[in-house]
Amino acid sequence: MSIKLEILDYNFSALSGTQIITNEEFAYTGGGWNVGYSSCPPNGGWYITANRAYFCSTPNYTSRILRNTDTTGGTYFQAGKRYKIEYKIGYSGTPTSGGSNFLRLLGHSTTALPSGGFGDIILNTSAGTHTTEWTQGASSASQIALRILCGNGFNGYLSYVKVYPLTDISWQDSVVGELDVGNHVDFPLALTFQISDIKDITSTSGTFSKTFKIPATKNNNKLLKNFYDSKSTYNNNLSNLKSCRILVNNLYSLNGLIKITGAGGFGERASYYDCVFYGNNMSWASLMEEKSLSEIDWGTDIDTGTPLECNVYEIKGAKGWEQTDCTSNASHITYPITSYGDFNPTGQETTVQFLFTKSEFLSNTGTASTGKNGYYGCNNISVAYATPLPTADWRPAIWVKDTIDKIFNNLGYQINSNFMNTDMFKKLVWLLPNAKYNNPSERASRYSFEARLGTGDIPLINASSSVTELRFPSSGTFNNAGTDNYVTKSVYFEIEDSSTAIIDNYGCGQIGNCDPTTGTGWGTTTFGYRNSNGNFYVPEYGYYTINFKDVKVKCEDLQYNGTNPNDYHLHDFKVQLGVWVLTVGESGWAYNNSPAKETHAFNPHEFAEANSTAPADEKVKENTFNFSITTWLNKGDRVLPYAKTIHNRQHAPSNGSHYDFNIRIYSPTGEGKIQYIFNPDYLEWGQSFDLAKLINTEYKQIDFIKGIAHSFNLKISTDETSRQVTIEPYNDFYKTYAQALDWTHKLDRSKTSQFKELKTGLKRQIQFNYKEDSKDGKVEAMGNDYFNGIPDVFPYQESLDNSFDKGLEVYENPFFSGTACGRDRDIEGTNTNGTAATISAKNALLWECNNDINQIGRCDKGFEYKPRLLFWNKYSPNATYDAGHTRAFKVEMWAGHTKQISANSNSSDLPNPLFPIYPQATSYNRFDPDSPNLCYGNITAQAYDENDGSLSGSEIAVKGLFETYYNFMVEQFKAKPRIQTSFFDIKITDIVNLDFGKLIYIDGCYWRLNKIIDFQPHINSPTKVELVEWVDVGTFAASPPPVIAPSIIGDNPNPFNTQ
Q1: Contacts of 779 (CB under 8 A, 6+ apart)
Q2: What is the CA radius of gyration of the chain?
Q3: What pLDDT score was predicted for residue 632?
Q4: Distant-in-sequence, close-in-space partners of 571: CB < 8 Å, separation ≥ 6
Q5: DSSP state, 459?
Q6: What residues contact 764, with CB distance under 8 A and at least 6 apart?
Q7: Residue 714: predicted pLDDT
Q8: Start-to-end Cα distance in the chain
Q9: CB–CB of 641/539 below 8 Å?
Q10: Beta strand segments in 927-1033, E
Q11: What is the pLDDT, as a whole number, of residue 1043?
């Protein structure tokens, strides 16, 4: 029996099935194509005639896109799979030349617009037949679209367009080379196949081999890049995993990864390589082991994708609350109502912040408006909007199924799972509970501005002319001589890229080049620093820290103009530096509402005139300004630095007398700075964002898979040839008796079989719980009060009989933490008598302190929580409920403007309704027995009637994760099944068709296959197999959970009682 080891670079170019689009040879108009013309359309564009598709470039042609849609209503292209397009181009005459003739294969989903399926591909337009291949990326698609980039003068045509799926591997094109096996004494390859480690009931394992050796021949050295050779410059890390195939008799193959763990021998040259083969689950597990969840491409890149937006219409619309589950394909996220601490801290009490822009507010209250895109600022007469400071009350949650699909698809694997296609699983989300960016430095650089001041004077400018002096008073007369009469004079100053101010940091490299009038910098004509007027056009919503560092102000050259200098004295003279803001869409600068300023007095001495005999230091007064203030700015706001002089005139001037003097603003050392530094850490209201940049880089993909597998006791098996990963819960993973394999004839009865009682690692006390989150004070308090100090909500605990070893075995979720859920008084609004205006549903509560859910007031928001697993309910009406009973919460959308978000479609009976969807996501819901319980332990629940506000029936126990997904397996273990270790005649065909989900039948007994040990494909000898007895233990009713006072966790039996 021969064996080969082949190093692979998978090429999925082999066709699998027939071409898939309709009317591929243009037999008629329509038929899937978006073409209804058989001759040149009136406005130009594509038409079909004589089995060809032509493009007519008459003036004003309206469409360059030729699109074919699946007429069956199905989906042509599945995310993650590969396809090939074949097309033939001809020309009616001499081909037109130039760049205008290119065709482009558009990346798309269900429209002709790009949407992340794959990147656009430029096609070959020379005469003849051409092919190109692609991998369908983030989204599936029901169309294929081709577009003329510029159709003027194009005289070509398409004879046909065919598309083929490429789901098979082209082995001929995939083999990089064959490793020499030779006759090395240590070669015998021994493979172990394992579904899980029976000593760890939550484990998921795979195929691996013992270390084996292959000779260091010239061929092997070439393929393995001579990494043993210190003189080799090739960067070939020993830990690199290489795709490989074990081929037996040129007929049967096992696919996986090979890892070269070392080399050895005598002298300078190696004589052998140490190798390990990984297959089944071990292949993809090894590939994703170091990958972060932040590496997933969601198609939302700020520059090259379609960014998400944190605002009212995106959150409550098709990309947010309107989604029923992950199959909507509108986005990969939604926004459940979740308390992370104090809602709307500077706004109306007991409301959630959900701010309109000013134009949105005006439009929603009957006044048409556009362009006023500020959430916080001042109007045209410098009066503040009075809206609360924007805060991140909403943080996204990602669909679990989307995440798993993307992880595996990016590695070239497809998921095969009935469980993951259930309604329940498709509604699972995992919270990004901190909404914290992982690229703060990049964001600070992108959106900030800094000017380093030179030693030259900054020019001071008023509205009419450039001046270097300030005259007081500027005009008019003053009464009430002898009283305080403060006179002010303001100017602004430009920061130019010159000897005066050196623009040298942040934003688009050199901010001096970031001029909206030229479209440089951020690649926009709207935002950045504009040299022409000294304005900084704010590029993103958020908080900015405005810094004036070591900015020197000097007053000098005092000159009196008049006849009676005693009439006019400079008392209480001050200089103020700061910034003005022009709120986006408004026409008046906020002169009286500067968000950042500092004032310095230039007393106690009065100035001496420049031409006097006074000492020089009395002729010059100076101060250094250093201040830092953080303020909210809207995208599109304009910011301008200013200088203001303030003095108290004690005597009325006569004959128009006044003093003139000069103010200089500069940096003596050339190190002074004026900065507008963007605060880059957290997702803020109104921002556009890339989902990948909100995911903690420390979240590993493999840990996420383990966390989901732990929650639902998932068993995973992989077919490396088809790249199919089967994922099912333990209860469903194993097939029926009818599908069992009869191995009775394979048992080698000449060898000893061993039968032992299965030792699973179970101890007398077992416990299943989520990972501790030390920042969650609510969960910690509940754990201490009700769950024996376990930092989780409704964990599972059980005491087994004395036949099990003493001790406690804890099975902790490796990725997710537990979540408290309850009604939240802090979002229910308040009536004039102090009672709640609404009744909120059960929401997730993440609090750093142990607040009472029945009282108003919360600790500050937390930003260091661990990920959470929740069920998205989209609590929307299926009936019209009576007023006053349906669940709702209150949002503040503008100063003094509140709305109710409710699941009641009877909006006429609700005060200020906004939207008939309550964005609920919970880990458990004690007012809905049908809602999945994602706690490991059981809960009690009682159905709430929206029509009359009553709780119907008695409380019933609702199974948690343990009793739903683990109980059957643990009961099997408690039944003390036998573990059999015997030798069987295992053939390579058994291995190639290996299915751990099929039970094994031997001598009248059923077993589940746990491990095939040291299978040697090239040696015809019996193989050791480990089997676990299959015990049918039946089904079990839900056991009662711990008894807990409902009022403690927000589940008052009377929902109207807040005491």
Answers
A1: 773, 791, 792, 793, 817, 818, 819, 820
A2: 36
A3: 95
A4: 603, 606, 647, 648, 649, 650
A5: P
A6: 799, 800, 801, 802, 804, 805, 806, 807, 808
A7: 92
A8: 79
A9: no
A10: 939-944, 951-958, 978-984, 1000-1002, 1005-1015, 1023-1029
A11: 59
